């Protein structure tokens, strides 16, 4: 009987998980005690422990807002919230950092609130532009001083949060990596032992309306530099090459470029002997008049390995010369898409190519090559303004001047 019950319990858990846990190649800061990506790929699954969020009355929003492609949408009523069960892992008790990306469209509501039915430690939006935090004392119902600042921008992304250092007593409110308010609340053991709610609590009629993604909890006060690094864990839209060809860089800059023949999309610029390079073959469209071009093949080179995938998704190259366990370029396909991935240092590139539709997307995770790549997809340093970096390292204002420097000299085209 016990065996049957255990089996049922396991099946129940498997069915209730919204998505599979995504295997992370990167390792997180050891002080991170909870991380809910709150995006289309990883949903409400806790990437650190098993405190997966339980969504109620919220939807995944796949509309691109700024450079973020997916987030959770809260409708601003009592039935729209995510509850995060707390097995003790994100009970930080002493020092803490709470960070979250919010896109408010309403007036007020809880962003991360410990204790669903009363005032535990909490981070809120308390006015159209007002961010607010109050940490509460553990078990003695005391409250520390509030910190608030009129800094949130409506209908835009705000990377908002708080740090608290138990030893110094310093508490700091952050927006987009900068301190916007600070105070000293002394050394208080804080109330963080309860479940947390986002969107709505049961005892207050203010409900958050808007989008949220990338909720992070740490058990120490991060420094400003570390908060800027933490922001990079938040999933941005992939770089895209599609159409005639319209391109969007890793940093979210969209432009059109009509070069023909092979061009470099992404290249390792950290070294005179690049470790990897991704190229695309642009050809004039034969189905319409004018100078429109589109992508007809992609070429990926990593070390001595090189493959080309054509518009029929056919893969050729020298990768069969390598034993499977020695191959650096991983290729798989399903339906109309070829997926190519490779990892160098801590950085993984994930590429999707749909030859029939002439659509190529590139995702990058890791930090070793931030700002150390070049090509038509930009330098991936988080700043869209410098994305027209030419092959000599200078930044151009002219799209054709920029694009032409990334034309590949030693590859021929019919
Ligand atoms: Ca850039």
Automatic annotation (TrEMBL):
Residues 237-414 form the VWFD domain. Keywords: Signal. It comes from the Eukaryota. InterPro entries: ConA-like_dom_sf (IPR013320), VWF_type-D (IPR001846). PROSITE patterns: VWFD (PS51233). Residues 1-16 form the signal peptide. The keyword Signal applies. The keyword Signal applies. Pfam families: Laminin_G_3 (PF13385), VWD (PF00094). This is IgGFc-binding protein-like. The gene is LOC102807150.
């Amino acid at each position: 009987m016990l065996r049957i019950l255990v089996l049922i319990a396991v099946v129940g858990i498997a069915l209730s998980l919204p998505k599979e846990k995504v295997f992370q190649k990167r390792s997180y800061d050891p002080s991170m005690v909870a991380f809910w990506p709150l995006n289309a790929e990883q949903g409400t699954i806790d990437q650190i422990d098993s405190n997966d969020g339980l969504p109620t009355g919220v939807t995944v929003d796949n509309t691109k807002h700024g450079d973020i492609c997916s987030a959770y949408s809260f409708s601003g009523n009592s039935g729209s919230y995510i509850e995060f069960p707390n097995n003790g892992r994100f009970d930080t008790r002493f020092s803490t950092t709470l960070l979250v990306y919010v896109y408010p469209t309403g007036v007020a509501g809880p962003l991360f609130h410990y204790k669903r039915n009363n005032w535990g430690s909490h981070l809120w939006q308390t006015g159209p532009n007002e961010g607010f935090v109050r940490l509460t004392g553990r078990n003695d119902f005391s409250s520390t001083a509030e910190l608030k600042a009129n800094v949130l921008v409506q209908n835009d992304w705000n990377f908002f949060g708080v740090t608290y250092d138990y030893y110094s007593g310093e508490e700091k409110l952050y927006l987009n990596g900068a301190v916007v308010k600070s105070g000293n609340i002394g050394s208080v053991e804080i109330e963080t032992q309860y479940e947390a709610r986002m969107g709505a609590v049961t005892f207050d009629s203010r409900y958050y309306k808007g989008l949220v993604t990338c909720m992070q909890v740490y058990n120490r006060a991060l420094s400003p530099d570390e908060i800027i690094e933490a922001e990079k864990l938040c999933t941005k839209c992939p770089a895209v090459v599609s159409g005639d060809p319209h391109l969007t860089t890793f940093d979210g800059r969209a432009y059109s470029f009509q070069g023909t023949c092979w061009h470099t999309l992404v290249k390792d610029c950290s070294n005179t002997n690049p470790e990897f390079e991704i190229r695309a073959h642009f050809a004039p469209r034969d189905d319409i008049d004018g100078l429109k071009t589109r992508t007809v093949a992609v070429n990926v080179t990593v070390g001595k390995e090189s493959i080309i995938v054509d518009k029929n998704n056919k893969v050729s190259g020298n990768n069969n010369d390598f034993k499977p366990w020695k191959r650096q370029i991983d290729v798989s396909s399903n339906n109309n898409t070829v997926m190519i991935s490779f990892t160098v240092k801590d950085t993984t590139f994930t590429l999707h190519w749909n030859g029939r539709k002439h659509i190529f997307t590139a995702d990058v995770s890791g930090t070793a090559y931030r700002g150390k790549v070049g090509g038509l997809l930009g330098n991936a340093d988080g700043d869209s303004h410098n994305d027209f970096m030419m092959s000599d390292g200078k930044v151009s204002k002219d799209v054709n001047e920029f694009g032409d420097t990334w034309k590949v000299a030693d590859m021929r085209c019919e």
